[in-house]
Amino acid sequence: MDYEKTNLSSRAAAIHDIIQVGLMAAVIFVMTSIAHIPSFMGVVHLGDSMVLLGAVLLKKKKGAISAAIGMSLFDLLNGYTAWAPFTFVIKGLMGLIAGSIAHRKNYNGESFINNLFAFLIAGIFMIAAYYFSGVILARFIVLKAATLNEAFIIAMKDIPGNIAQAIAGIIISLPLSSTIKKALKYANIVL
């Protein structure tokens, strides 16, 4: 009998996790879809704010999965198919990095300063990762005639947009994550 209760409890927890990841992936997809501007080889958007929010609310594992799914789904459905595999990995790692730092030690995603640090590190990672992904795409997929040196130069054109995207994501997600975390704590809701 105890085994059945434990088994049902773990199934309910798994379903709960799937629902949370699915909802956050949808929120990330919608935010990216609502506010995006095409850039030289990619797109600048506000979806990173929800990636960072997901990392704080859902922690590293679920935050990473929801970020990878939501962002790569946007790429697949909006003509950025070549970027989708890169996005899946980069945004997943971005969520993992932000969630790992935000929830390290006893911070539990509740420290404004620690979350800022987490978001900055995740943003820097995203900018660098998309730069090197842009080099690969410029060299082997988008502009096959480009040399490797040219690809490194071409990929630089998207750096300013990625910096703006990271900054906007941090500006939106910091107060939002603090407010939501406080509201959840006040209501005794554990995600």
From TrEMBL:
List cellular component terms (GO).
Answer: membrane
What UniProt keywords apply to this chain's record, in alphabetical order?
A: Membrane, Transmembrane, Transmembrane helix
* Highest taxon of source: Bacteria
Gene3D superfamilies xrefs: 1.10.1760.20
User: Among its keywords, does the record have Transmembrane?
Assistant: yes
Indicate the transmembrane segments per the record.
Answer: 12-34, 79-101, 116-142
Q: Which InterPro entries match?
A: ECF_substrate-spec-like
Question: Which PANTHER family does this one have?
Answer: UPF0397 PROTEIN BC_2624-RELATED (PTHR37815), UPF0397 PROTEIN SPR0429 (PTHR37815:SF3)
Q: What is this protein called?
A: Thiamine transporter HmpT
In which organism is this protein found? Clostridium colicanis DSM 13634
